[in-house]
Specification:
The complex is a heterodimer of chains A (about 350) and B (about 450).
Chain A (H helix, E strand, L loop, with lengths): L8 H21 L4 H12 L3 E5 L6 H12 L3 E5 L6 H5 E8 L2 E8 L6 E5 L6 H4 L1 H8 L1 E4 L2 E4 L5 E6 L12 H6 E6 L5 H10 L14 H12 L5 H12 L11 E3 L3 H17 L7 H12 L4 E2 L1 H5 L4 H11 L11 E3 L3
Parallel strand pairs in A: 1-8, 1-9, 2-5, 5-8
Antiparallel strand pairs in A: 3-4, 6-7, 10-11
Helix pairs in contact in A: 1-2, 1-3, 2-11, 9-11, 10-11, 11-12, 12-14
Chain B lengths: L2 H49 L4 H23 L6 H11 L5 H6 L17 E3 L2 H19 L6 H5 L6 H16 L4 H15 L9 H38 L5 H20 L6 H9 L10 H24 L58 E3 L16 E3 L30 H4 L2 H11 L1
Antiparallel strand pairs in B: 2-3
Helix pairs in contact in B: 1-2, 1-3, 1-5, 7-8, 7-9, 7-12, 8-9, 9-10, 9-12
Classes of the chains: A alpha/beta (about 350), B mainly alpha (about 450).
Chain lengths: ~350, ~450
């Protein structure tokens, strides 16, 4: 797609201001998780769905609820359990009297919201998990041959617990690929915990001010699309994704590499990050910053690498280090200087 | 700073960086060429210094040309790896952390960043070790190839090898004999042919053992033939002079004896390895040996004069011959004494031959390098009166007694140090030759 209207500095500044306010609002909800909050906002601006992985009680659900309040969006929560059925998510046709006739009327499920929190998504059966596939990719739901559009904007924020894996169903690769980011929610340090103790009470939800409405968010999403993607950055993204494939020089231990959707995700996330930084163009730094969140759930390691303790994060870190912005070689009498 | 100036600054920086990288590529190619040129040029310098030292400047011109041509080739070969200013800009903006603003500005999105104050931290750094090492190697090789001492080449070297002394001596003898016309030209040509055969071998082999031995043999053989010629001439001249001096009053017995002596000498002169000069040789060949006693007084006088003249010329030329051993040539007072028994000559060299009226004289015993020659070798004519002029191939003209010259000191293969030199029969005290004095004393003491 050729971009004709590029972002201008005024819009970039205005968007940056709005995003800063959203960031501050979320930082008041979740203490000590600035990086996570930035990545969540980045994912939102890139129109992506997010998969949050972390231990219970780290504030994943709180973050999503705070986000819905700050954005003024309709948010719904689905607690995934093994007996959950697809219809419980998408909605079911119900037999009703309408104008004197009995016919099936579609009753929308909880997926019909701007912000859907799919809590512990890996506890539902694959059949139920797959009910989200169409919603996440096409942003619509088809029941009994009838498609129902989801509201815009539409985001899925799923959580999963890395422990207590008995009775869970790991997400299939196709579904994982539909998540823009997989974010690790890490434990807080002592100072953050102290702050939580001082400012929070059990059972009392924090107050969150409304930062923007859905229209403003949609405008921000459009501005994100107009961020300029320079050709060298696109080339860098392409080489980075290609380097994840087995057989490439630095992809040792990788069984399956990232898909072209990963390249698109990198580009969209880079643009979003540039907008957050009030810049008109994406940069190599943006790509490097979002690459771990974009690629970590898209790489599948072989057994040897797993046995050696290799993780996808290590692979991505190695790729970021080894793949230069400029891939043209230097003559042997010149060396790249670290500045 | 205006937008235009900012743009110019960063475009200039990108251009500078790309040039720097491209020079690196060119230099990398050229150093390989430089190495090859250095090696080839150094060898060429050494060869030219060895063969044509006055043509050295052409080698330097060729080396300089090679380097220039190499520079052009390096540029052509390295061009496909050259980096454009756009590609260099990517390095620059990434290294300087400019968030891709240069590429965006170049595409017309956003403004050019403010120029860097001070010196730009270039994202590439020179590694001079390798080009410097190549340069030092080049300089060292050329300095060595220019300054290392070297001798002049092969062609002039051949002239240094001189002919063996024996060959040079014989050549001078031939020269002297030809100048005095004291020997037959054909005999001299035969000697020269032998010398030419010897020198036909490569000059490097002239001083090998075999060549030196052959040269020594040639010298010895030539000397021996000259001595024999001088001896025969002296004998013939003496007999002819006596016959001519006595005239008709000579008793028949003496005449027969002198005739026989003259016949023997004449036979030796015509059949010897070195023959007298052509005139005398022709005269002797025209006479049949049996007719020598019947010559008229006038003819005998003429023959005696010829013999004396040739003998004199030979003596004169032999005196001029370097390293010629005149021992054995009868001197003026040899033999021909007036009584029986010892000749009363000067006893120079070998003893004279005994005659019918005199003894042979006593052998001079001296402490010289040569063993005493008792004149046991002699040349006898055959009993049959063979006509030398009509001799067929295979006919025996003369029989010479003598012994082979065996080099007693010749190498006879390796010998073990301290080994037993001789194998004695039972009871032979061989050990006496091989034991050390102390060991011998010990053995003696044991058997006492």
């Amino acid at each position: 797609m050729t971009q004709t209207n590029h972002l201008n500095e005024t819009d970039a500044a205005r968007a940056g201001e709005t995003i800063s306010r959203l960031r501050v609002a979320l930082q008041n909800v979740l203490f000590g998780q600035e990086e996570l909050i930035d990545l969540v906002i980045t994912g939102l601006l890139a129109r992506g769905h997010l998969l949050l992985e972390g231990l219970p009680g780290l504030g994943k659900t709180e973050l999503v609820k705070g986000l819905s309040k700050a954005l003024g969006l309709q948010a719904k929560r689905i607690q995934f359990t093994p007996d959950l059925l697809p219809g419980d998510i998408t909605g079911n046709p119900m037999l009703q009297d309408v104008d004197g006739t009995r016919r099936f009327v579609f009753q929308p499920g909880p997926v019909f919201a701007n912000l859907v929190l799919a809590d512990e998504i890996n506890r539902a059966s694959p059949k139920t998990q797959s009910a989200l596939l169409e919603a996440m990719q096409e942003r619509r739901v088809t029941v009994m041959g009838e498609s129902h559009m989801l509201p815009a904007p539409f985001f899925v924020l799923a959580t999963q617990n890395p422990i207590e894996l008995e009775g869970t169903y790991p997400l299939p690769e196709a579904q994982l690929d539909r998540f823009l980011f997989k974010l690790d929610v890490r434990s807080n340090d002592a100072a953050t915990l102290e702050k939580i103790v001082l400012h929070r009470e059990i059972g009392v939800e924090p107050e969150v001010n409304l930062v923007m409405d859905a229209a403003t968010l949609n405008e921000l999403l459009d501005l994100t699309l107009s961020v300029f993607m320079p050709q060298p950055v696109a080339n860098f993204i392409a080489r980075l994704v290609k380097a994840t494939h087995p057989g490439e020089a630095h992809a040792g231990g990788v069984k399956y590499g990232a898909s072209p959707r990963a390249a698109l995700a990198l580009a969209a996330a880079s643009k979003a990050r540039a907008l957050m930084d009030r810049r008109l163009n994406a940069s190599y730094e943006d790509v490097r910053a979002v690459a771990p969140a974009v690629l970590r759930h898209r790489l599948i390691l072989d057994y040897g690498a797993k046995l050696e303790g290799m993780t996808t994060d290590l692979i991505v870190a190695r790729l970021i280090e080894k793949i230069p912005a400029q891939d043209k070689p230097l003559p042997s009498i010149l060396s790249a200087a670290k500045i | 700073m205006s937008e235009e100036n900012q743009s110019r600054f960063w475009q200039s920086a990108s251009l500078t960086l790309s040039r720097r990288i491209n020079i690196g590529w060119w230099l990398e190619r050229w150093t390989g060429w430089l190495m090859a040129t250095t090696l080839a040029g150094s060898v060429a310098l050494l060869l030219v210094r060895w063969t044509w030292p006055d043509q050295l400047r052409w080698v330097w011109i060729a080396i300089a040309s090679m380097l220039v041509v190499g520079g052009v080739f390096a540029w052509i070969a390295g061009r496909r790896r050259f980096e454009s200013p756009d590609a260099a800009r990517v390095r620059l903006e990434d290294a300087l952390g400019l968030k891709t603003r240069l590429s965006a500005a170049a595409a017309g999105v956003g403004q050019w960043p403010a120029p860097v104050t001070g010196k730009i931290a270039w994202p590439v750094r020179w590694r001079w070790q390798r080009p410097l090492a190549v340069l030092l190697f080049t300089v060292a090789m050329f300095v060595l190839a220019t300054l290392v001492p070297i001798s002049l080449g092969g062609t002039s070297k051949k002239h240094v090898i001189e002919k063996p002394t024996a060959v040079m001596d014989v050549e001078k003898w031939v020269q002297e004999l030809r100048r005095e016309e004291s020997a037959d030209e054909k005999s001299l040509e035969d000697v020269e042919k032998k010398i030419a055969d010897l020198l036909q071998r490569p000059s490097e082999n002239w001083y090998e053992h075999g060549s030196l031995e052959a040269a020594g043999n040639l010298k010895e053989q030539t000397a021996s033939e000259l001595r024999e010629l001088a001896e025969n001439l002296a004998d013939a001249e003496r007999a002819a002079s006596a016959m001519q001096a006595m005239g008709d009053s000579i008793p028949q017995a003496v005449k027969d004896s002198l005739t026989k002596g003259l016949q023997e000498a004449a036979q030796g002169l015509t059949a010897g390895g070195m023959k007298p000069n052509e005139q005398l040789l022709q005269q002797l060949q025209q006479m049949h040996p049996s007719e020598l006693g019947k010559l008229s007084k006038e003819q005998m006088k003429q023959l005696a004069e010829q013999l004396a003249k040739n003998s004199e010329a030979l003596k004169k030329s032999l005196a001029q011959c370097p390293n010629f051993d005149p021992s054995g040539i009868p001197s003026e007072g040899d033999g021909d004494g007036d009584g029986e028994g010892d000749g009363k000559g000067k006893k120079k060299g070998r003893p004279g031959k005994g005659g019918i009226s005199r003894g042979r004289g006593d052998a001079e015993l001296t402490l010289s390098n040569d063993e005493t020659n008792l004149d046991t070798k002699k040349t006898d004519t055959l009993k049959s009166m063979l006509d030398a002029e009509r001799a067929a191939p295979g006919d025996t003209l003369a029989v010479t007694d003598g012994k082979h010259e065996v080099d007693k000191n010749a190498y006879q293969g390796p010998k073990q140090g301290g080994g037993i030199n001789g194998t004695g029969d039972g009871g032979t005290a061989v050990w006496q030759d091989s034991l050390m004095p102390s060991e011998r004393a010990t053995l003696k003491k044991y058997f006492k």
